[in-house]
Design goal:
Elements: H1 5-45, H2 54-58, E1 61-66, E2 72-77, E3 82-85, H3 89-95, H4 123-126, H5 143-149, E4 153-156, H6 160-170, E5 174-176, H7 187-199, H8 203-224, E6 234-238, E7 250-252, H9 256-260, E8 264-265, E9 275-277, H10 280-286, E10 290-294, H11 298-307, H12 309-312, H13 316-319, E11 323-326, H14 336-350, H15 360-372, H16 376-387
Parallel strand pairs: 3-4, 4-5, 6-8, 6-10, 10-11
Antiparallel strand pairs: 1-2, 7-9
Helix pairs in contact: 7-8, 8-14, 14-15, 15-16
Length: 396
Amino acid sequence: MRTDFRSFERFKRMRERARTLLKHGFLVFFAIVLGLLVSCSKGAQTPDAKSGTAETVGRGETVTVTDIHGRSVQVPVPAKRIVAVGGGALRLIVYLDGVDHLVGIERIERTPNPAKPYQLSYLEQWGELPIIGQGGPDPKPDAEQIVAVEPDVIIANLDVAQADALQQKTGTPVVTIGYEALGSFDDTLYDALRLIGQLIDREKRAETLIAWIETTIKDLDARTQTISEASKPRVYVGGLSFRGAHGMNSTSSDFMPFRLIHAQNVAGELKVGGVISVDKEQLLNWDPDIVFIDLSNLHLVQNEYIQNRSFYDMMKAFQNKEVYGLFPYINYSVNIETTLFDAYGAGKILAPAAFQDVDLDRKATEIFAAFYGDRGSEIYAEMQSAFGGFQKIVLP
């Protein structure tokens, strides 16, 4: 068979070209591999860099944590992308200066509410974040929306069944915190702060805040622990929010601002946890010397007073005009900073000698700065604008 010379020449040229391409391709491949090795080597030199590059963060370690319900959850740390579900979760993230980690928000947090200080001055920052659930008493997290924002961890105030279900639906670790117990100023609160601090690389911030809270509690205790029971006025707080707004009959037998200053809470005899509702006849039987009203629900109490003035005027506190306002204690879980401030405000009224040296404006600046840094004064100013302050309430 005769071989065509031109065909043979074309074949040789093609062969040489293929060899050249293969040689070039090998060099490119070698360069890529070398570059990757160098990159990995650089990343390995700084494994503890907290604010490292995206590659370093992507190689963060996975640890097993125990959440508030005793669930063991494997989580990547530090978590750079988080969402908060349920009452108190977002609040604690704000306390720990973790807003920049948020990649989604509950719908309820889009509505400005001065009864939730942690919202103030942050709404604009998270107002454009995707919605990941409705929030509120029945938060109903949206699993599809959560998956879409790709969080590393879901920090949630849910029960065990809800947390397990959400984790299964999303394939994302769900770490639970407490709820009403967050306002107990004990290990429930501190463990939640430490746990979130571990998740988002804010351990030092958590310990600083916990130490400050403990110092403040000791100051309140030292001022009031030796006051005799016989000399204390009998007090009542009404208008506390819980899963919505309530009027005068909504109270607490373990109202933390009262407990911190050893006040004589008339509802204390009930020994029931959380916010409770009492009959008006019970309130009349107690007949407190001084009444405090949560200012977020003052309008409801005012309406009740107008409709049943004669009933209220039978009580000593209303006869003597010893009715005062307190800043909102609870709204989508407990406002920790406001609880401490309310304790000082109530202390000035119930034990003026013990709090004679306390200037409430300066104390507010100190407290809100401890929780919000430079934003603290701005937040307190907005709360003052919305609610006023610790003054006597003049009922219509």
